[in-house]
Structures are given as structure tokens and as C-alpha cells.
Amino acid sequence: MPDIMTPFGLAIDLETGDMVAATNRLVRRASDMRGYYADAEALDRLIQEQDDPLHYEVFELPVPPENGQLMYCISKLQPGQVGQEFFMTKGHYHSVSATAEIYLCLAGRGYMVMKTAEGKWATEEMMRGRMVYVPPHWAHRSVNTDANETLVSFCVYPGDAGHNYGDIEREGLGKRVFQRGGDIVLE
Ligand code: F6R
Ligand code: ZN
Hints:
Radius of gyration: 17 Å
Order of helices and strands: EHEEEEEEEEEEHEE
Largest sheet: 6 strands, antiparallel
Number of helices: 2
Distance between the termini: 53 Å
Bound molecules: fructose -6-phosphate, zinc ion
Number of strands: 13
Strand content: 35-45%
Strand order of the largest sheet: 1-2-3-11-6-9
Shape: globular
């Protein structure tokens, strides 16, 4: 007989995304984002002048990283720009590439930028109450396009999916999101 896990529940504040029961808090600061933005000098200035500000956080109360489990987390991406490029997450494929993910946006505004290894790309708007389905084999990155608000999402994905950052670090996501003269532009 397999070990049978005990069911559980926990509270998530649907306005702020606060998940008090979380035991893991992954923190990415501006200095963790070297190599990701188009304007590397602007990132260096941000790190120096603003004392390496918080970029994003991921909160989890993890379940076993196994097939059949559903991992879930809260992702909070700060507002801001590196030069004219909006703050974004690193982005990744899942290590088990054939695994999907659901993002439910709880607060803020932005985009999910996605691409496949074959070079197809897609974007979906993120805003409070909107869900984005990231199908299997699509790398994904969230981008915060709001001037002030944190982009908060609840994410659910297979427990054994894992994260492959290296490919996106090398190849990028295909499209970047900039503020150009008051417009939000994908280039
Ligand atoms: C999990 C997932 C999200 C991200 C989070 C941070 O598979 O897609 O929880 O992990 O938004 O982004 P990354 O992991 O790209 O730094
Ligand atoms: Zn993911």
C-alpha cells in the first residue's frame, strides 16, 4: 500500500496573496537577475542606487515533489523597470517539459510571456480574477506592467515538474515588455 497523505487546508488572502502557513520563501533580488534584462547597465545602477531591491518572492508550503501531487505557490512580483523594461521573473521550462501550470492572478496587472523550444511564442494578460493556462512544453515568465502594484498570482503545477532555468537564461523568452513613451510594447 502506498503511504496515504493526510488532507490539509490553509488560508490565502485573496487581496494580498499572503499565505501565512508558508514555510518556504524564495527571494530574488535585482542582483539575482544579472543577464536577464536588455539593459545590463540599468540593472547595475538599480542594484547600486537602490541597495539591491527586492524583485520577487515565491511562497510555498511544499508537498512531496512526486508524480500525482500538485505543487502550489504564491508568486509576488514587484513593480518597477530596468531601463524601459518592466520587472519580470526569470522564467523557465519545467524540467519535465510535458507538464502544464495554472496561474490565477490575484492582484496587479501584467503579462505572461510564453514560448516553446521550436520558437512559437504567446502572451496572455494577467489581472485580478484572470487565469492563465500554460500548456505542457511552454516556457513561462510573468511581467509586471503596473506602475505601483505588486503582481500577485496563485500557481498550481504537477509535483514532479521541476524547473529548468538554464535554457531560458541562454535563449531568452523571445519577447520583452517595455514602456516606450507611455505605451506598453512587446519587442
Ligand atoms: C512554478 C512557477 C512559478 C514561478 C514564480 C517565479 O512552476 O512557474 O511559481 O516559479 O513565478 O518565477 P521563476 O521560477 O521563473 O523565477
Ligand atoms: Zn512554472
